[in-house]
Predict the structure.
Amino acid sequence: MSTTDAAPQPKRRNPLATAAIVVVGIAAIVAGAMQIYRGLGEIAGGLGGKAKQAIDESDKLLAEAKAQTVAAAPLFQELMTAVDAQGLEAARQQHREAGQKAIADYAEAAKDFRQAAEKADEVATGETNTRLTSFLKKKSESYRQYAEVCELNRQLIAAVLDEANKALEPMMAKLQPLIQKRDAVQKSADAASVEADEMVKKK
């Protein structure tokens, strides 16, 4: 038997199966954001009661958003991996519930991210400390972008579950711009979050 016969080629993975991987990073970035939030007192020289309450509320919303993204990511991955391994029809039949749950989780996460951004904006409005204002505005920007990432993930999953998409290759071609947009927004959100965190570290 030849060496070629003895070494079967590994199966090429469907690009859709890897589309879910990047979303896991949201939880790590959000966790870092919550820790940095607790350092706001150092920037502001002390926070007033209303500002502290709003930040605490934002903190809780971020925790909820993190929990939702952590719950959604493996469900998203399950569906996409099934598409790779089983094909569209079988994946829809056997993993539709996982996909629908992921859609719901991302919807909740997007809502929580937006509300967290609103709380950050609430503190920034009328704030005289320019460093604190810049920090909060940059954090708000990142949270709104993370919300958009969640919405784009919902669209990806919905397209995979949509029976109108009959064939894999045409569907993949249609989804590539959406995946690219999601990745670009994710990158921008990460950069905004890191930029805000660097503001805290500067003395």
Observations:
- The helical segments are 3-6, 15-18, 25-37, 40-44, 49-86, 88-124, 130-161, 168-201.
- The chain is about 80% helix and 0% strand.
